[in-house]
Design a protein that fits this description.
alpha+beta, Glutaredoxin, four-stranded mixed beta sheet, globular, binds glutathione, Thioredoxin-like_sf, Glutathione_S-Trfase_N
């Protein structure tokens, strides 16, 4: 039974991911200098995620739209990133954005909060 639930979940995830790719539109355009700056800042960020998770897809769409090359870290069973997320953030829930700054590391859960953070930092402020 667990096998069929996992199969259906993965199948639905793959369909949603496919529809996402063919409908995601164009990326935000910046000057080359601005994009270099954004790419540098993005190196201090990482998205802990599942490939087929709808909330992760929503977050990845925003990252694509805002042209943010943020590393994606899959937290499937057996991945070392799963343990990192659990230890750092405190729970296995995706998406979660790992934010490294001068004060240390922050773990931001919830797709709406993550997208809001990215918009404030990379879209509205520029
Ligand atoms: N309100 C949250 C919901 C996130 C959520 O429910 N994520 C699911 C995956 S789609 C999850 O991490 N579930 C825990 C698990 O699968 O262990 C958001 O918008 O990010």
């Amino acid at each position: 039974m667990k096998f069929f639930i996992t199969l259906i979940r993965n199948l639905l995830g793959a369909i949603i991911a496919f529809v996402d790719v063919i409908t995601r539109g164009t990326k935000l355009k910046r000057s080359p200098e601005q994009q270099v700056q954004v790419a540098e800042e993005s190196q201090n960020l990482a998205l802990y995620q599942f490939f087929g998770c709808p909330f992760c897809i929503k977050t990845r769409r925003a990252m694509y739209k805002y042209n943010l090359p943020i590393q994606k870290r899959n937290v499937s069973e057996g991945s070392p990133y799963r343990e990192e997320l659990l230890q750092g953030g405190g729970k296995i829930q995706t998406p979660c954005l790992r934010i490294e700054n001068n004060d240390g590391v922050e773990w931001l859960y919830d797709s709406k909060a993550i997208i809001g953070y990215l918009e404030t930092r990379f879209v509205e402020a520029k």
